[in-house]
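I have been asked to look over a protein record a colleague put together. This is what I was given:
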Amino acid sequence: MNEATEPQVNPTDQPHPLDANKWKAFAAIGIAFFTMVASMGMVFIALVQIAETFGVTLRSASWIVIVQGLTISAFMMPMGRMADIIGRRKVHLMGLTLFAGGSVFTAFAPSFGLLILARIVTAVGNSMGQSVGTAMVLSVFPPHERGKAIGAQTTSVAVGGATGPVIAGLVLQFLPWEALFLMLTIPIGIAFIAAFFILDEKQVSQQRTGARPSFDWVGAIVSGLTIIVVVILINNPFGVAIVSPLILGGVASAVVLFGFFVWWELKSDSPMLQLRMFKNLVFSMAVATRFLGFLGTTTVRFLMPIYLISLRDIGEAIAGGILFLTSLGMAVAASSSGRMGDRIGERPFTIVGFSMLVVTALALMSFTADTPFWIISVVLLINGLAMGLWGVPNNSTILGSVPTESFGVVGALTNLTRNVGNVAGQAIASAVVVGVMVADGFDIPLNKITGDAAASASFMNGWKYAYVLVTVFSLIGLALAIVTKPKRTDLSE
């Protein structure tokens, strides 16, 4: 055939140098992601047994979850920045080591105080693994497959989040809670061995030609303190009044800390977070969209178990099966939206995903104490599909708007945004429902509403107000998704 008449080959059809190793590398990273996310759900199931072992109240035992969330949130972004400086593989391996050590420490903790310390150690390791996971996954996939990479990662997160409580429930039926934490060392050990032998630091880390930048210790400490104060204020674990001196002092402290953080980062030669990235409207609006999305969707995960178990009086196993539909929908949609987003762009999927969130929020707002279970199941499945449709393209949009050398800290920022959105959504939903019930004269635990028609009616009234807010959050997120126009990755890369 004449050279002039040979067909032109699309660069995306040519083998990419990363193709041979990408799925092996992803498997090494995905096992760690799955285990770390699953472990967070397992802790909830084990709380009752842990409280009984150490003779503490469930309120005291809840600090196991609180310190876990606080530590992960506080360390996420600094660890992402550290990974950008010293190497993502190094931070990943250190994180897996701390996670495994903390899990063993948890199982053999001789006192409740040392158990809390063990969970902090585990959470630091968890934050290290989660902070670099996204950046490493993106590094082992070609640029034109960014959506596919994030979709695969999101699927592993969704499956981990869905199966964690199920696995914990099965294990705790036959074994003590200590065994649960010891068992976590098995997949983490596999993940460590796989990462050690498969991951290449040169491949998963951005190679620098100049001198290694310094780590912004001041920015790391101040950002961590700011996040801790904000998360505590949102969660209000002490149950104090909103206008109390403690809350007002906390708000003032958060404002001062945040102001100092912004001032310091803008003047620093090597800032932990390059705040000037927020001048990029695509980046800023995508981050805001992400926060609003998780602010709304976490309400389903928080209120639905109470609705099913306490109000509808069905067993935990059946409730778990119904709730699994959300994670199933998310896993299915995440993979599809990632692959298709690489071809036609992220924006359409984000818009469709948030449109579906609005529809499901309106549907949930109309629920009653007698809503058929098949309708509940369909709405939860659609809600999960919506999460998968918008979550992956949104993440891809954020990372596609920053340089590759910032993938570590920005990937950590996306996970931090998810965590803070989840905490805020749970706190708001709880405050609304409890506030309505207290106003109606039902200052009782939510697990006591079964069989009391008046209390049930009050709960559903609070439920409706909560989903009014979810609808508003979703509509604002939809508006941002419509006006955000992400940059397309050059497919010839």
The chain has three domains: 19-204, 217-271, 276-493. Residues 19-54 form the longest helix (36 residues). The mean pLDDT is 80.
